[in-house]
Amino acid sequence: MKDLINRVILGDALEVMRRIPDDSVDMTFADPPFNLGKTYNVYRDSKDFKEYLEWSKAWLREMVRITKPTGSIFVHNIPKWLTYFAAYLNEMAYFRHWIVWDAMGSPLGKTLLPNHYGILWYTKRPKGFKFYDIRSPHPRCRKCKVVLKDYGGKKNKMHPYGPLLSDVWTDIHRIRHKKRRDEHPCQLPIPLLERLILMTTDEGDTVFDPFVGTGTTAVAAKRLGRNFIVVDIDPEYVEITERNLKSAKPTKLNGCYVSVYLGRVITIRDRDWERIKDAFIIPQDIKEVEVRQIKLKRGKTLF
Ligand SMILES: C[S@@+](CC[C@H](N)C(=O)[O-])C[C@H]1O[C@@H](n2cnc3c(N)ncnc32)[C@H](O)[C@@H]1O
Description:
This protein has one domain (2-132, 163-252): Vaccinia Virus protein VP39 (Rossmann fold, 3-Layer(aba) Sandwich), CATH 3.40.50. It is 23% helix and 22% strand. It is of the alpha/beta class. α4 (190-200) crosses α5. The protein has helices at 13-17, 49-66, 79-89, 190-200, 216-223, 235-246, 273-276, and strands at 7-10, 25-30, 67-77, 94-101, 117-123, 134-135, 168-169, 206-209, 227-232, 252-253, 256-257, 259-261, 264-269, 294-295, 301-302. The strands form four sheets. The protein has an eight-stranded mixed sheet with strand order 1-9-8-2-3-5-4-7. Bound molecules: S-adenosylmethionine. S-adenosylmethionine is lined by residues 12-13, 31-33, 40, 42-43, 184, 186-188, 210-214, 216, 231-234, 237.
């Protein structure tokens, strides 16, 4: 397996996974094609329902097999497919969370517009898996820096940097600006992967992604000092991944890996706070939360 480490492999996910020994990578993440007829270069994203599920079961089985007993398995998809994946994974791994990623789509089109993705989190064993508490910053007014949430009246007890993350993530948006994205129909944001990696792996661990697209998982792993093994069937995406990797640099603050997006630290490990806190300017108003009033047209006010 040594020959696969820190390489972007052009090939079929299942064929590559069969070359990886049992219990050998620390974390596996898969963002497969969603079978929605998207336009990829090589892959045809419109399999028959049964065929898609059978194919998915094959790579899910391989993901669990190659993950270490201390490791985690993540699968990103739309809820429809995740219900089938979860039923299958329940037979061979341990359910931890269904993370809701609200990727902030435009509320246009229809009622009950599908507007979130799910990330299934499973572990290979029921106990003894790697897990670190992670925090994201308080949402603040861009201009005045006031914390925008009341936290149910518990604001005085809040951590100065921000809360421990729940299983609903609303602060990481899909990449929409053309200048920030590569030529790929469904590139994920790097901070999403960095969050999962910080939560479940250590420096020097190995992260595996069978459908890497333009390299999000590989870049996140490199920035956080982890190794990676990543695969894609499309030569153009492999080339873009290699290019993206060249410019990826470690993101460390006072010796601790953190996730940075557009100049802001957006995920830290709770245990790193003491070492990194002097790098932050914490506004004095942390305890003064602005109560935002919504004015109605006829002069009435709602809170
Ligand atoms: C949803 S995209 C992944 C996007 C990726 N997470 C990113 O952030 O760029 C799915 C990817 O799977 C690749 N793919 C499809 N079938 C594959 C297979 N059998 N083996 C390896 N890669 C495959 C496609 O080329 C596509 O890039």
